[in-house]
## 1
Amino acid sequence: MKSPIQSYLESLHAELSSLRSGEVASYIPELTKADPDWFGICVVTVDGVAYTAGDTAQRFTIQSVSKPFVYATALADKGRDFVGRRVGVEPSGDAFNSISLHPRTGAPLNPMINAGAIASAGMAAGTTAEQQWERIADSLGVFMGRPITLDEAVYRSESDTGFRNRAIAWMLKNFGIIDGDPMAVLENYFRQCSVLVDCRDLAYMAATLANGGVHPLTGRRALPAPDVERVLSVMATCGMYDYAGSWLYEVGLPAKSGVGGGIIAVLPGRFGIAICSPPLDEKGNSVRGIEVCKRLSRDFGLHLFNKA
Ligand code: GLN
């Protein structure tokens, strides 16, 4: 017999398929190839059980959903104090590509905007950019529960057109936030954004955070337990860019979106949620993804501040 959660997800998916607003990201030329009809929802419990509806095996690029996981890697490798000196934990209220740096120290306001994410990529363990990439790739693979692969065309496309991110990386170099060659660190950031995922992969990554940092199926620890609350905190306050406040108000879960159309949300101790749907609103968040999370939160009382 079908579980009630499975039936619920299928009817929610059918209902929200008719939601047609939003535009597929076009500022990275290769991303325009995404099909606006791709739509998948996946919920993975901390026991590793997956519930899926729609296109959950369709691959797309992770984009900014990689940011909390690479921040986690920096925390694990360099420790909270070192990382805290180089990236803040304050919401910027600005767009994802804003150059929001602390006026005196140059530290990006948080790791969920591009500036903070590029800085985080530069803090992965390794003495060369190649070693740092190996570390990032390995870490993302532990979160996902399988080795990662890249969409080379998206990577090239972003590297060929990422002038604004290049300016940000040089600013970070100017302030001593990046050691070594900022262009090599930036290429690693472009690579991490080009990692191919499907909705299921993202839900397992979210479930790993929900499960205290241990992948529910492989049993491998992806980050030290004390770092989980740090990562979830910045996701809660900064994960949805300049929609973060409204998101916390309406949905009440730590989350992260990406311009590929992915969104993850985490209910600590219970489950991870992932949605794939490429059409984005003007802030760069998946339109259907937001709607799915609003509905799940409301229908199941998931808001973290309503647990009395
Ligand atoms: N790779 C994208 C960029 O840096 C990621 C942005 C996003 O997903 N919001 O522009």
## 2
Amino acid sequence: MNSKANPQVTDTARTHDDIHDRSHNDIRDDIRDDVRDGVIETDAVIVGAGPVGLFQVFELGLLEIKAHIVDSLAYPGGQCIELYPDKPIYDIPAVPVCTGRELTDSLLAQIAPFGATFHLGQEVSELQRQDDGRFHVATSKGTRFLTKTVFIAGGVGSFQPRTLKADGLDKFHDTQLFYRVRNPQQFAGKNLVIVGGGDSALDWALNFVQPGPHKAESVILLHRRDGFRAAPASVTRMRELCDAYEMQLMTGQVTGFDEADGRLVRIKVSGNDGVTRGVPLDALLVFFGLSPKLGPIAEWGLGLERKQVVVDTEKFQTNVPGIFAVGDINIYPGKKKLILSGFHEAALAAFGAAAYVFPDKRILLQYTTTSPKLHKVLGVESPVFD
Ligand code: FAD
């Protein structure tokens, strides 16, 4: 979801705009500070600004390692913003409940003291070790870095929605065929067909049925079978709404379509009863999930297992010394793809990286509560105790 495109999320949009502004200013600072021949020389580059990449900034910051952070999306937050900005998360330690968006905004506030430079809307496409031990990192927009350490926090990789296969339908992509809802208001008062059986399909179907600013004229949920992967409460609610004739459930698959004057006017649905029916519509919303595409990360010579980057559990380092992998992208015995696991990994990876950035320095564990040095890097007052 692009929060800038959604007028409902002004607060978040402001926060993200701040990030954009800060990132541009910081990039200018970098040009003064540590850019040689157009290459940014730095201690750490983080690939991915999901929750774990953001927290990596914090853990590096405590060790006085300044980071640059790159994401192919135009905004930070990874899956939390892209997939479930308004859903509640209940298992962040000491935060009883927060939404994906609130978690992202809290992380952005928490890392603000460290002035990380954001490079958004660009994919890291190249990573190569240099003779001096540093890494050359390049993005799709031509930003280049020479860095002592790299943190791969790429999650499930670049987000690629699974598409609906029907010859010729692609031409309606982003006009009448959608794989994401960026602006729910554009569907208000429309006749919608929503395809899929997971949480996204059910959530959006329920959202567009309920009275409010996004209410559609009609909603048909189309799934290939009468069984759903979505949360049971959503399925129950959907069936109640169907019983009340507020929406309709169809089982079958899209096998074709009709167009008139360049517009998609009807899809053909082959039902499980063998009958093909024409279903008129204004917009087709398809939620088949994301297919994880590691993208360029797969080509950097890192040890991989089942499309994930193999790491140790002491430093979360890959088979290449100086390259760490944290969050959903990594794999090790017992790995659980949870945000809290990623936060732990980020802390240990930062300590692992300190050995490359400060080879002559002994790194001690300090508490943020009591360490005047950490208070200084955090920019807070040291408390005075009686
Ligand atoms: P991501 O959030 O996936 O972020 C990775 C970022 O890297 C993305 O922004 C991507 O664009 C970027 N990227 C990838 N490759 C490149 C590249 N080459 N160049 C530049 N950028 C790149 N977890 C919980 O702990 N609790 C929950 O309640 C919970 N609920 C969830 C609900 C849903 C519906 C989903 C889908 C997930 C949920 N999760 C939950 C899982 C949680 O969101 C993930 O564990 C978490 O987002 C992983 O964070 P990450 O930073 O590792 O990766």
